[in-house]
Amino acid sequence: MNKFLVSNIGRLRLLAILEGLSLLGLVFVSVPLKYIFGITQLSSVLGPIHGILFLLFVFNTISVGTEYGWKFRQTTWKVLLACIIPFGTFYIDLKILKPIHKKTGR
Prior knowledge:
By secondary structure, the chain is mostly helical. It is 85% helix and 0% strand. Helix 3 runs antiparallel to helix 4 (72-82). The chain is elongated and about 45 Å long.
């Protein structure tokens, strides 16, 4: 976990994973509980958490993109698009963020 917290790219990777996990929880646990069993408490807690993680991911993507000098058309828009596509943050972490994190070593 520490390797994620020492750099902005590491924190962005952590946010990508947390945002994806919160969406998994919403889609596969919270929504079925709400619509099949009428249990709404988890949705009312997990929904705002997911929203906050989504916004943090967007803001941090812009911040990291600026810090690392990403060209918008080559990298930044792909990373931003990932948080709109369901579970795209897992893919983008694997294909873009992890290699950058390894390459920079910070």
